[in-house]
Predict the 3D structure of the following.
Amino acid sequence: MKKILLITTGGTIASVPENGGLTPKSAGARLLDLVPELNGLCEIHVKELFCLDSSNIQPEHWITMAESVFRALSVFDGIVITHGTDTMAYSAGALSFMLQNLKKPVILTGSQLPMEAPDTDGKRNLRDAFLTACNSRLAGVYIVFDRLIIHGCHAVKTSSRDFRAFESLGRAPEGRIRDGRVVLDRSPAVPPAVSSAGAFTLNACLDPNVFLLKLCPGISPALLETLPSLGAKAVLIEAFGLGGIPGLDRSLLPAVRNLAARNIPVLITTQCLKGGADMSVYEVGIRAMEAGARCAGSITTEAAVTKLMWILGQTGDPDKIYSIFFRDFVGEFAKI
């Protein structure tokens, strides 16, 4: 029988009405009691790590999660982490990079309605997460939600209310839960940047000084110009379309040049959910590259932000930052 550890961090799945709003309160043992069909599926142990709304999850919490997973996987066959949906994709990305050569499944799940609410999706999601964690064919970090198994670096929350809260962008879901069974749509990929024979290691150094800017028409260049004084060490810009930024009125190009001159990497992604960025198509993208920005390509914003934080924990050299960023560690780049 598989031995699985449940790590609880709070979220809607553990919430109860309190002080006029939902607040995480329920303990891990209570969550398990509400899903009796888990009895006999596997040997389950519980570690209550946090009890937080995921809006309050910070990079320091990711490090604690990664350390707990790393220690546990020497004795457990898999991990299930209950987590709030709002920042679950960021946590999945961070764990994907910190846990190197991961050879067992680490499954994040949660719910859109509290576990004890009528018609909750939490019971099904928790059951499906344990089913997936027991699958010996899977290795890596995944989000299991509304019957989908989604690669941790391709999950994006696209609905604040629907039970289908997450989509897999740039990559089809790894599989799904069908009739109480895990059905994989592909053979699990070997991470391209690591050896399948490499030792499982923890690299949990993070630097959160990454600034994410979403462009809108009329945005002031002063926002970018102030970033060095605010301690930004890398900048990710969610630009328009394939990666265009303003280069005429309220031009951002001088600010990009200034950031590059200060050895602060500037990466450009897209606000579009599908298709990725390609700054070589339009003049507005080409001029941004000439000013010193680099195209982030086909990676989700959540994966790009957490990857940059992880890279900054290793080096401050801009050339090395770019080199590591464009190295595909766990299949985080989509094949466009």
